[in-house]
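Subject: Predicted fold for ECF-type sigma factor negative effector, 305 residues

User T.R. writes:
Posting the sequence so we have a shared reference for the thread.
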Amino acid sequence: MNQDKQFEKLAFKIKAKRWLITILLIIVLVPIIATIGYKASQSLSGKQSGQLMADMSINQTLISPNIQNSDLALGNTGIGGGTVISHQYKDIDGYHIPWQTVQGKYNWLSHQIQSDNLVDWGKNVAYTRTTQTKIPLFYNDQVKSPLVHKAYEISDVADMKGYVGEVALTFKQPMTYKQIKQRIPSNIQANWFWLGVSGKADPTMQDNNLLGIQSMNGTIQESDYRYFRKSLKKADDLGTYNNFSITKFAHQYAQKYPSLNKAKFAGVIVTGKTENFKPLVNQKWIAESSVGATIKRVPYIKPSF
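User M.O. replies:
I've generated the structure tokens; pasting them so everyone works from the same file.
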């Protein structure tokens, strides 16, 4: 009996020792594993958020017709992921007009831009979904019945007094940067140059995701175009609309036009005082003209051009 009791005591001590060791290992290892797991998740999330920001920056560079962004920031971040938010606006001759907010989500394994240029269409007009601001549209004259009917609005906006505004001008024939600058009056600004589309693609149904290059104060330098061309070549997911791949067209354009002096553009967005658009009325080189955002001038904000 004594031997049995001694054996039981010994077995209990061994079992207790094992439990103690197990508990100590848990106390030591759990924080270490948790720390490693947290750092790994942060690393994966950081990689995805960085890629998401890069994608949003590419979109801002390539498919934001006369649209600027005031920020590109992380929001609602957590262990499992978070969001990236960009607030957009239009600069119309020194007047800032609210545009849409672009948002993307990311987690450890993936990322996606959830909202971009959301559009509400009508037969004769298109508006941003969130701010309900009129969108300046471009047209492809090979499309006989576009989603939004062709517009000829330059004379209407030129008759408005006391406003600043933007107008998208679609050319009858593609033109070089130099040819465009020669035709634009000196008292209005060429803000954004549209690359166009191919075949019978309808740009009015592209959710305002149109390829083009933003000017700096109405001017594009060769260095600006080189950076833009690199972005065209990097683009990998700009969207497809009715079998027209924006990404494929971006790559083709970059290959076809290696320099600014050779590049040709299908249209331009001009901005300025609405009265200054009068010289553009009835110009034969303009096929269509679509008014975008306009705003009443006020004495405490001076037009920048």
